[in-house]
Amino acid sequence: xxxxxxxxxxxxxxxxxxxxxxxxxxxxxxxxxxxxxxxxxxxxxxxxxxxxxxxxxxxxxxxxxxxxxxxxxxxxxxxxxxxxxxxxxxxxxxxxxxxxxxxxxxxxxxxxxxxxxxxxxxxxxxxxxxxxxxxxxxxxxxxxxxxxxxxxxxxxxxxxxxxxxxxxxxxxxxxxxxxxxxxxxxxxxxxxxxxxxxxxxxxxxxxxxxxxxxxxxxxxxxxxxxxxxxxxxxxxxxxxxxxxxxxxxxxxxxxxxxxxxxxxxxxxxxxxxxxxxxxxxxxxxxxxxxxxxxxxxxxxxxxxxxx
Length: 307
Known about the structure:
41% of the residues lie in helices and 18% in strands. The chain has 11 helices and 8 strands.
């Protein structure tokens, strides 16, 4: 773009040509008249041609200036419209990224409530377990399952993840579970998941049997949940993420005991988004939705202790 004159000078020319007056152009641009004159001198030297004629105390456009002025004004109008459209989209669409289980099993079914509360705002939800660099990305905010706040990000704690075995009624009918020890005699989904170790270790005086043999292994709680509903085994899952399935009887919690995972879910966003109206609106709605969902389970709302 070496042939393009300095945009600062072009911007001054557009205002001066529209007003055909350096003083009014200076007032519009918040400059002095001398600064406007200087920018026009630079532009004319760059072009090697006069754009204005000086007449008495005023100025008028030359034939060249009159020929290019409408095109320059049209270009600036196009730029204004382009950036206005971007700003409008930015103000009305919240771009959010969230891990699969939280997004699919908890958040998606509640976003209708956010839209009802904020009808002028839409949420574009990216479902991914990948941690993106929010400061350099298109996303306004993220939900993350981490142990605590992360450097450089504003963080709001949402909830802990209680974990416990869940299974389908048909599976439990053919594989009765009377004590936690019985879990070592039935198919367990993803038996090497550290949530199993957490749950077993939180039980007092549990005699751990031999390690599990061949089993179905998945890389997400969502898939473990679907397999458990299908009757393929017992999954170690977080009940708040499967509340609907538990209410409908698709899953059953055979033991009342839950263990709390070391990580929790946090809403995070870059510091420069702190005062964004759409981010504040989503934050307030989400924190209220979490409190309502937790009900009397105060332990869920306590942030994990940092090591």
